[in-house]
Amino acid sequence: MNIPPKKKLCKKGTSKAKGFKGCNEFKYIHRYGLCSSCFGEWIYSSGEGKKLLNGAVNKAQKPRKEMEEAILTYNKEKGLPALLVNVRTVCHTYIKLRDKGKPCISCGTPWNKDFQAGHYYKAENFSTIKYHELNISGQCQLCNLRKDGNFGDYSLRLPKRIGQEKFDKITRLAEMDKKINHKWDREKLKEIRKYYQTKIKEL
Fold it and tell me: Rounded to the nearest 5 degrees, what angle is found at the Cα of 83, between the Cα atoms of 13 and 118?
């Protein structure tokens, strides 16, 4: 019986990649203690990695295939973290502009310029709806940062603000999220960014 691999923390390289810092995220480890993306980056950026790559190319055997797959993964994911941050910025900018003048979604504190974009379902736990406009509302810093989102009061006020039908929709999407092994790709993120850029212009 084959036991499926578990995700591990890609923190730092081992063996030939010793001293190379990983992405510090939980991923499937490829080689030398690194995930595929970080392994590909190590291959490109380090002397030891380049030596290993050249050896694989010269031999044209199995190691070469592993190097090519790692490099492909690296190129595919290159810039993804920056794009995620960019999409988050555009999305949250829209939310704060949309909800300008409205009280805090959780405690009802009158609006002020320091309000943040607070998630109903936590962004780190519900990946598929982390950028969904029904899941994010203007929220005071006290509720968002010090009260961990103030979920209890948030759940009371959100249906009144967006309507029961939309509240039920985001609840269903949250339930579906737990059944999906979701991973962002560049094209989808660009699509979301364009959507919110358009929404901002329409305000």
Answer: 105
Q: How far apart are CA 105 and CA 161, in angstroms?
A: 8
* Both tokens assigned to 2: 């084959």
- Specify the pairing of strand 26-27 against strand 8-9: antiparallel
Beta bridge partners of 9: 26
CA 45 to chain CA centroid, Å, is: 25
Sign of CA dihedral 5, 10, 13, 17: positive
Spatial separation of the C-alpha atoms in residues 62 and 121, rounded to whole Å: 44
| Residue 153 tokens, joined | 């009061």
User: Does the pTM exceed 0.70?
Assistant: no
What type of residue sits at position 101?
G
For residue range 86-145, list pLDDT tens digits in order. Answer: 999 999 999 999 999 999 999 999 999 999 999 999 999 999 999 999 999 999 999 999
Q: SS in 3 state form for the chain?
A: CCCCCCCEECCECCHHHCCCECCCCEECEEECCEEHHHHHHHHHHCHHHHHHHHHHHHHCCHHHHHHHHHHHHHHHHCCHHHHHHHHHHHHHHHHHHHCCCCCCCCCCCCCCCCCEEEECCCCCCCHHHCCCHHHEEEECHHHHHHCCCCHHHHHHHHHHHHCHHHHHHHHHHHHHHCCCCCCCCHHHHHHHHHHHHHHHHHC
